[in-house]
Amino acid sequence: MVEFCAMVKIILRDKEYLVHPGMDLLAALKKCEILPESVIATRQGEIITEDEILHDGETVRLVAVISGG
Amino acid sequence: MPQHRMALCKDHFLEWVPEQTARFIKKYWMFGPEERILVAVSGGKDSLSLWDILHRLGYHADGLYLCLGIDGGINYSTRSQQLTEKFACERGLTLHVVNVQEQTGRTIPQWNEINLRGREKPCSLCGLVKRHEMNRVARDLGYDVLATGHNLDDEASVLFGNTLNWSSDFLLRQGPVLAETPGLARKVKPLCRFYEREMTAYALLRGIEYIYEECPYAAGASSIYYKELLNQLENHRPGAKLAFYLKFLEARKSGFFAEREGVEDVELHPCLHCGQPTSAPELCSFCRMIKVGQVE
Question: Do A37 and B154 touch (CB under 8 A)?
């Protein structure tokens, strides 16, 4: 029997990325080629750390930290 | 926070940031408990967090918001002013608002059209107006010190740019405190040792509502490019940005950078119109810009 699982959605500004569940946030950011130093990740409004495991169907919103000009 | 080799829960992080800020204020002799502080607030995460922290530490800190008249299709100035006013109102803090258009006759984009015919971005012009107006308000209202929300990434980025260009005069002056001189208020950067990521976390955890969008003119700025480069370095070597800045401060303190021999100090005198110090013979750069604008 084939098991289907929902992907994890990662949103940064107007971009969306999809990663497989089961990996931690650090691995997911690496997969999306996003520097961990440049973002803060939130899940349901709460900040999560880089060792958090991402689960089926979750949405992680990334807050860009760089400002200025 | 691998750069500090520690991890904190929300409550302890929210205690740690103000404690460290208090430590930096004392370490660099920024200001004392009796002094009146004017915080330059833009509606962004750093300046609002700085105001929040100084207020929590019990300092007499009032805010100054400069409405630059930048729209950029996102009502940038209007929205950042609303957020700043909401922040001040909710905490019962005093906020001074200066509308650049009312003060000078034009918005920053309009000044850019006149001075540069819109060919370039208005960032240097905007910096000139902001420095002049911040100093004017600090001086006119009798504040002892002007505080800005520059964080470590801002400072490391400027340092990186100045080093790439070997701008020795700028390297000599860069630091957490710029001492007051006749006509110029003391300038301090109490957040200069916090990573930008730490300040974002502070604003989010503290529930500070700030303008998330960039200034519409910031896209493509070299300072942002330098920040991205330094973040790549930090990713491979946690603590690299902090070490870069702190080692620079140590080197500067130990006389590694010196005034050039044979180069005399530029003589400053009061601008004939506004009275702020200038090296130009009559009017300062700001007043010259206004004069040109009146002719156009």
Answer: no
Q: Which domain holds residue B16?
A: 10-258
Chain A positions touching B221 (Cβ under 8 A) are 68-69
Q: Which residue has the tokens 């005093």?
A: B94
pTM across the whole model: 0.94
By percentage, how much of chain B surpasses pLDDT 70? 97
A67 and B157 in contact by Cβ < 8 A? no
Which residue blocks in B165-214 are alpha helix, DSSP H?
168-173, 196-206
Q: Which fold has domain A8-64?
A: Ubiquitin-like (UB roll) (3.10.20)
Per the CB < 8 A criterion, the answer to whether B292 and B115 are in contact is yes
Instruction: Report the pLDDT value the prediction gives residue B266, as an integer from 0 to 100.
Output: 73
Residue B229: predicted pLDDT: 96
- Give phi and psi for A40, each to the nearest 5: -125, 130
